[in-house]
Amino acid sequence: MASRGWRRPLGSLPALALALFLLAVAAAAAGSPDRAAPSRPPLVLPLTLSYPNASRVASSRSRRGLAEGGRPSARMRLHDDLLTNGYYTTRLHIGTPPQEFALIVDSGSTVTYVPCASCEQCGNHQDPRFQPDLSSTYSPVKCNVDCTCDSDKNQCTYERQYAEMSSSSGVLGEDIVSFGTESELKPQRAVFGCENSETGDLFSQHADGIMGLGRGQLSIMDQLVDKGVIGDSFSMCYGGMDIGGGAMVLGAMPAPPGMIYTHSNAVRSPYYNIELKEMHVAGKALRVDPRIFDGKHGTVLDSGTTYAYLPEQAFVAFKDAVSSQVHPLKKIRGPDPNYKDICFAGAGRNVSQLSEVFPKVDMVFGNGQKLSLSPENYLFRHSKVEGAYCLGVFQNGKDPTTLLGGIVVRNTLVTYDRHNEKIGFWKTNCSELWERLQSGGAPSPAPSNDPGPQADLSPAPAPSGLPEFDVGLITVYMSINVTYPNLKPHLHGLAELLAKELEIDSSQVRVMNVTGQGNSTLIRWDIFPAGSSDSMSNATAMGIIYRLQHHVQLPEHLGSYQLLGWNVQQPISRRSWLQEHVVSILVGVLLVVFLSLSAFLGLYLWRKKFRGQAAYRPVGSVGPEQELQPL
């Protein structure tokens, strides 16, 4: 969540150690409330973070047990961008009528919470706060022996503290939760937190709250699985470098062929851990003790963390191994002087070609299977130097835990198969996964970064809907995941960058309209023909639109973008000078004729009047003598 990236609840364990110890003592004295009788209401839940014991895991497996298939799933879009915003969000609707919220998807959190209307210490977020009084289906979770109660002993409360020193606390309520119109899962009643206090980055973030997907009875996943409405599994897919968005599925989905799995021990930790045994850089294993990835909580996969964090020995070995493979590049300082980032300049802007410069990294699991990471899975763009990249892998202080954040799984479908206690990885194009899910098609594997000598370099097909006539104007509608005030100073540079990406002159690209919409900005661009021409060929327009759809890459500080749509207009037909000015000529001729007639008429009247005055002579006036004519 901080500028260095999100660090989710792993840091909350030390803060809760005393509470866990007291809870364990109280549980022993009370006869182990974790082993609740079946008659206990399933939504009256303990609120403190606790490790699930073996008996609870076994009982949950028998309860959720057989026939995971055939159940509906909640298919939800992911928004924002991992490195620009520090997180991905999805839209959740709570109450009747529904109140919409943008929630950070976090596999390391166990509570879903939103700001409450009565909150006196909550920041200004993307959407209005939740108003329980406006929901006809809302009910508070009343105080009971299994929860921490408020001061009036009326309602259950919750509290969460995070590693970056932020916290959230409030009361628990129950209401109808819906997952959007595109989800086949019907709205369900669920318990969630209504915040009364936020601190740190939770207070200042743009997103409304957290959607907790971790292991725990308050987790939205555990609640839906306990109701039997979805299978005990969920999947997430984050977009790649410079491309935001993605998809999330709550519930079971068919596993694609070739998915790589690793065991996840639910008894060891409430977090989603994996069995990482080795890391290879350019085909060579790091010279570290394999047990280094098994310290404390082991290797934890956390969707709410931005970067990757390794124990000190593993980080030093990884940094040195990568640096030794990039001799042609120049080592430079990072974009933020507050951090000692390891950055390299001279790699170029094309992400698909980074594998030609940076080495491949492999993660080897305990079962021998190997997940290959492309450079976008351990690098982030330098925000101030074009063509420069920095390591997105850092030392985890003195903590022996290995923490893998979202950067490691960009363009990777990750399936958290809780029922079978394993996590699967499958490389794919996450930015296109949502459309494939909606159409019912299976996701396709990610394209190789190395085309090889046999690659098909033929021109791309024309986008659907492109007309066959010449084009006079292309109008593009784009959404950028940056707020308007932050984007406004960069609009001119963004237009030049867009022109460069489209391989056209900057004078052809103009910003026609800009509208702020929450944490995004909607822009209408007009793309004109080159020079003084009034049209461009169909092939030229086809190339521009294709590059818009597939090749445009924006710097990370400008955010990710989504192409909302485009349309084209025919050119205005070219006419001769006489055709274009015929009306003006006619008006001019008529004006000249009118002035000429007016002048002649005026002269005629004047002369007539003058002659009349010259013929008049008074009686008796002296006139010129007349010469007598001879007889």
UniProtKB/TrEMBL annotation:
Membrane-spanning parts: 582-606
One Pfam family cited in the UniProt record for this chain: TAXi_N
GO biological process, one term: proteolysis
Span of domain Peptidase A1: 88-426
UniProt keyword list: Aspartyl protease, Glycoprotein, Hydrolase, Membrane, Protease, Signal, Transmembrane, Transmembrane helix
Region annotation Disordered: where it falls in the sequence: 437-462
Signal peptide annotation: 1-30
Active site: 106, 302
GO MF, any single term: aspartic-type endopeptidase activity
Family classification: Belongs to the peptidase A1 family.
PANTHER family for this protein: ASPARTYL PROTEASES (PTHR13683), OS07G0592200 PROTEIN (PTHR13683:SF817)
Name of the molecule in the record: Predicted protein
Organism: Hordeum vulgare subsp. vulgare
